[in-house]
Design a protein that fits this description.
single chain; two-stranded antiparallel ribbon; about 10% helix; about 35% strand; flat
């Protein structure tokens, strides 16, 4: 009798790049592992294997499902 072992769920890894005159340059994450997205003035991070956006103050930005639930 074979034993079923579920496949490991892939872990998200955050990589950021910016375009420079010399090509792409890696964006280093901050000490919390977040990337600053200057054009939209948001932090991008991986939390509990999900992507999360934070505003400039570090407050999580609600996702679509949270916005819909709050309006209901």
């Amino acid at each position: 009798m074979s034993q079923f072992t579920p496949a490991k769920q892939p872990r998200l890894r955050l990589l950021g790049y910016t375009r420079t005159p010399n090509g792409l340059q890696v964006l280093p994450p901050d000490e919390r592992g977040r990337l600053w997205l200057e054009p939209v003035r948001l932090w991008l991070a991986v939390q509990d294997n999900e992507l999360v956006c934070y505003d400039e103050a570090g407050t999580p930005v609600a996702d679509y499902a949270e916005v819909v639930a709050a309006r209901a």
